[in-house]
Write the structure tokens for this entry.
Amino acid sequence: MIVHPFFYLGIAIVLALLSSKIIKKLRLPNVTGYLIMGLIAGPYILNFIPIDAVQSFKAIPELALGFIAFSIGAEFKLKYLKKIGKSPVVIGVMEALGAVILVFTALILTGHALEFSLLLGAIAAATAPAATLMVVRQYKAKGPVTQTLLPVVAVDDAVALMVFGVAAAIVTTFNSTQEISMIISILTPLVEILAAILIGGLMGVAFSYLTKWFTGRGNRLSIAMGMVALNIGLSSVAVKVSPLYGQQIKTIILACTVIYELIGPLATKIALTKAGEIKQEVKPVIKKKEVLKPAA
């Protein structure tokens, strides 16, 4: 029996909505419920959504990530960045490079190969901007920590892309049987990333002009969707990983992604709550009616 992919997409959406209702009872972020429900309903546990259906959804995650990147980019407000200075950039760069150095050093000290350590160290720099953004939006967090957090996440992922591109180029050079220039191998991913930044900047300028001509909310939403889709189409990144470590790295990435996506939203909520930027839900206290005693 051949079932249309939209049938499984409908199941996924309904299950996601149900999971958000259940997870709210535990006072956890909605995105945590989405992830847990996805694991349970997916092809490896209950198989409500088979692997063929998951593979047919390839375009949906790309579009979703495009909108997430667009939303995070919208948080880069020049007025705020001028006000607080370079702190988001410094924090993002140091956080990413710190993770790379720690993981790379730990793997080398435990006897792993240099190429394997380089790639996993580079992967360690990446974060999950989607989970962070969803927590901020769900709880309507506002304040200096929130305003700094989103630019930091964006900078962190930009650094992670550059580091992984360089690490993959170095590993490819080490394992190649042909003579390949190390400098060219390293510069190639950096040029690709800089070109992507340039294209994104030009698209942003075009978007700002178009929103001046089309003032309606529906028109602006259509322009935003068109720009995101256009950028996704223009940005194609080819990642070359050493075949020797490819399967191990895929397994580790999957495990780390699941762990981070489950812990990340909860950690974000706790941090923003401690900072006082998420309003606590206070249940109304119902006072008992005082019983008037008869006068003696």
